[in-house]
Amino acid sequence: MSRTDPTFETGSRACTADSRPAGTGAEGGGPGGRDWARAMAFDHAHLWHPYAPLGAPVWPVVAADGVRLTLADGRRLIDGMSSWWAAIHGYNHPVLNQAVSAQLGRMAHVMFGGLTHGPAIDLGQRLVDLTPAPLEKVFLCDSGSVAVEVAIKMALQYWQGRGRPGKHRLLTVRGGYHGDTFAAMSVCDPVTGMHRLFTGLVFKQLFAPRPACRFDDPWEPSAIAEFADLIMAHADELAAVILEPIAQGAGGMWFYHPQYLREVRALCDAHGVLLIADEIATGFGRTGRLLACDHARVTPDILCLGKALTGGYMTLAATLTTADIATVIGHGEAGALMHGPTFMANPLACAAAVASIDLLTSGDWQARVDGIARQLVCELEPCRGLAAVSDVRVLGAIGVVETRAAVDASALTARFVDAGVWVRPFGRLVYVMPPYVMDPDDLSVLTAAITRVVADL
Questions:
Q1: Is there a catalytic annotation at residue 260?
Q2: Catalytic residue among 137, 307, 431, 442
Q3: Catalytic residue status for 431
């Protein structure tokens, strides 16, 4: 089978049911002996991929190392997405490989109900040490969405334990994204979010306008006015405020002023409302601080962590809270926090997380992220003058080019693959969150590809 065969189509297109990656034959010629034509036909017909219809274009990956993904046809792509912001150390890192391998030789999994194990204890200790007091109680769960569900349950059970069951609603801001499960969906943006199909089926929450005062602009006190009005008017029914601190992620990649978060904390304190910080996307250095809350020197009552927690190796998340909240829940009607995933505190995932945290904190991650930020500012700024672009913004290792109209995500992704990079736009956002280990030359290839592709819109 040659590249000129009419049944072989890659180039600017993903592999689909009728395409065959280079170097594969009809019978077992691909990497590892896999018949990629048949494999992709099965994927096309049977496998759902996130936020895509069955049969949508996908690119088969056979290996990943450092900051590069190797496709089945042999092409290597510089990864600008850190696998949805999780692989902060890159791929196939020897330290993380060793941690998982060593743990696998001892115990891959054991239930956390009634049992415990060293990796969970070690991870809990690190999370308590890394996060500000009085956050000291740790619930280890499966994913970011579940971490948000757990945080919401904590808030609701806390107020039930305090004899205030009427405090059962949440207040958030528009433009947010907190996950795909039902309680998490209820605090995602109700208009522009991914979950508007479920309007009327999810809990009805309260929404303030998206924070209008940008991260680097002078603070405008009027920016908090509508939020303040809502929390004052509904304090008796509000269990908690939930926010992505400083940087909104999948809801719009918007970076807002740290003073907004300080004002939110003060309003929560004044009106007896808990504050939940969803740091699933922003935690572990992504915004230039270890936690995004550190930009404002604010401590939430409940903190959600995920994504980069294991360096992208395993699915794991954590929800932390205070001794006071945990004590009230423990003395409540149920006597326990009512959540318990089967794979809670999986030992492999906990071992990966411990190794990832140690790798991060033992190195000069701050300098790496600051260097990425400076380079993103310099190399993405030319996009601001392009006709199709409405804004360019950077915070830490996050670079965003916002277009005036929604882009054809599949077409642009294919263009990026042809340019040798992995960038997956959505809506009006062409953005990157590179691994912290990416060197300046690779980052320049990434930003140059973005500039070229966006220039052609």
A1: no
A2: 307
A3: no
Residue 53 sits in the same domain as residue 63: no
**Annotation says 456 is catalytic:** no
Count CA atoms within 13 Å of residue 364 on its CB side. Answer: 5
Q: Mark whether 334 and 392 lie in a shared domain.
A: no
- pLDDT given for residue 268 in this prediction: 98
Average pLDDT along the chain: 93
Among the listed residues 278, 431, 436, 442, the single catalytic one is 278
Which CATH number goes with the domain that contains 107?
3.40.640.10
In total, how many domains does the chain have?
3
Question: 236-266 pLDDT, tens per residue?
Answer: 999 999 999 999 999 999 999 999 999 999 9
CA angle 270, 273, 278 (to 5 degrees): 120
Q: Which of 51, 129, 204, 229 is catalytic?
A: 51
Same domain, 42 and 67: no
Cα dihedral 246/193/196/423 (nearest 10):
-150
Residues 114 and 7 in one domain: no
CA distance 185 to 232: 24
Q: Clarify whether 51 is annotated catalytic.
A: yes
Q: Is the pLDDT assigned to residue 195 strictly greater than 60?
A: yes
Measured CA distances, 332 to 29, 158, 329 (Å): 61, 8, 5
Distance CA 35, CA 43 (A): 12
Q: Which of 91, 158, 177, 431 is catalytic?
A: 177
- Give the mean pLDDT of 353-382: 98
Question: Final residue of a domain: which of 306, 328, 362?
Answer: 362
Mean pLDDT of 225-236: 98
Residue 32: its pLDDT value, please? 65
In this predicted structure, the answer to whether residue 321 has a pLDDT above a threshold of 50 is yes
β-pairing, 317-322 with 206-208? Answer: unpaired
